[in-house]
């Protein structure tokens, strides 16, 4: 008696075969089983944000590999401590490279091929971050004038020198500027501006500015009147000073004449009286005091003539003016 076949078992077997066929097709079509990867390392300056495992590696725009690892340092890193470049390890798909051999010799399978390509100017260059996704890529191209900056020590993988990308640096700065611009609180600025304008409108509507202007105009008029009065007073003081100086000068001249007459009288008395008489001694003393007083008046007249402002400032102020 024949055993009946379970339909569910048959269905599962058929479904598994279909899935396996699809997987085989995908694997064979992608070339993963036949791919021959060639690892390289390049040291990049600056910020490598957006350059992660899986980031594309291209040769003149053609995808030829991907980034496998981004590190701070390598296991056997011969670089000095002052070298802050970031090592990025990536792999090149030689299967895809073989299609480019005809265009110029991107052949890494031959011995010494990498050294020859580097001498021709092959360099790695980090591209600027995508403005939408932020992802970066590594671009390989020929730069015949670029220096060979490879390290002398042994590295775990071959090194391909890197060159800076001025356009990428400019793009990074533009992206930073966009981010900084986006972080500006325009809403808060607008609110503060509206508040300030509202305060100005309220001040204008209150009439305080008009009243302040009227008060200012009156104050300026008062100050102008006071200045005129001060000018008149100064003229009066100058005229009074001149009159006082003339009076003092006249008194000094009169004192000089009196002093001369007193000297003449004193001489006559000395000739008439006994030189040792007490009256003559007291008279001589009195006349000498008169002589000193007349000399002091004459000095005062000369000083006031040279420093008329001394009548207002005192003797100290006149000396500073001299």
Describe this structure in words.
By secondary structure, the chain is α+β, with helices and mostly antiparallel strands. It has two domains: 33-179, no CATH class; 231-321. The chain is 56% helix and 12% strand. The chain contains nine helices and six strands; from the N terminus they run H-E-E-E-E-H-H-E-E-H-H-H-H-H-H. It has helices at 7-30, 94-97, 113-120, 166-182, 186-206, 208-272, 278-306, 310-313, 315-321, and strands at 37-44, 56-59, 62-70, 86-93, 122-126, 138-142. Strands 1-4-3-2-6-5 form a six-stranded mixed sheet. The radius of gyration is 55 Å and the shape is elongated. It starts with 6 loop residues before the first helix and ends with a helix. Mean pLDDT is 74; it is low at 318-322.
> How many beta strands in the DSSP annotation?
6
First-last Cα distance: 149 Å
Strand order of the largest sheet: 1-4-3-2-6-5
Strand content: 5-15%
Mean pLDDT: 74
The stretches of 5 or more residues where confidence is low (pLDDT under 50) are 318-322
Number of helical elements: 9
**Principal-axes shape call:** elongated
Give me the secondary-structure category.
Answer: alpha+beta
From N to C, what is the helix and strand string? HEEEEHHEEHHHHHH
Number of domains: 2
Q: Considering DSSP H and I runs of 4 or more, what fraction of the residues is helical?
A: 55-70%
Radius of gyration: 55 Å
What oligomeric state do these chains adopt?
single chain
Q: Let me know the largest β-sheet.
A: 6 strands, mixed
């Amino acid at each position: 008696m024949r055993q009946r076949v379970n339909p569910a078992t048959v269905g599962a077997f058929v479904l598994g075969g279909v899935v396996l066929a699809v997987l085989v097709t995908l694997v064979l079509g992608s070339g993963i089983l036949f791919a021959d990867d060639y690892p390289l390392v390049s040291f990049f300056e600056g910020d490598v944000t957006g350059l992660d495992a899986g980031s594309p590696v291209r040769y003149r725009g053609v995808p030829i590999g991907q980034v496998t690892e981004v590190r701070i340092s390598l296991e056997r890193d011969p670089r000095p401590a002052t070298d802050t470049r970031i090592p990025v390890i990536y792999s090149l798909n030689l299967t895809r490279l073989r299609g480019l051999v005809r265009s110029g010799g991107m052949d890494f399978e031959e011995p010494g091929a990498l050294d020859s390509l580097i001498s021709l100017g092959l360099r790695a260059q980090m591209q600027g971050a995508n403005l939408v996704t932020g992802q970066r890529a590594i671009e390989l191209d020929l730069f015949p004038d670029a220096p060979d900056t490879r390290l002398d020590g042994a590295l775990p993988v071959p090194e391909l020198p890197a060159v800076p990308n001025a356009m990428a640096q400019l793009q990074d700065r533009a992206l930073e500027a966009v981010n900084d611009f986006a972080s500006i609180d325009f809403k808060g600025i607008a609110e503060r501006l509206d508040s300030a304008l509202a305060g100005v409108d309220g001040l204008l509507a209150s009439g305080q500015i008009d009243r302040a202007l009227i008060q200012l105009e009156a104050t300026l008029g008062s100050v102008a009147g006071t200045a005129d009065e001060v000018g008149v007073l100064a003229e009066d003081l100058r005229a009074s000073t001149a009159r006082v100086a003339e009076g003092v000068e006249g008194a000094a001249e009169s004192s000089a004449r009196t002093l001369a007459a007193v000297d003449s009288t004193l001489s006559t008395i000395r000739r008439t009286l006994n030189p040792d008489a007490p009256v003559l001694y007291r008279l001589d003393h009195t006349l000498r005091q008169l002589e000193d007083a007349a000399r002091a008046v004459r000095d005062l007249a000369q000083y006031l003539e040279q420093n008329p402002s001394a009548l207002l400032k005192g003797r100290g102020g006149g000396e500073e003016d001299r």
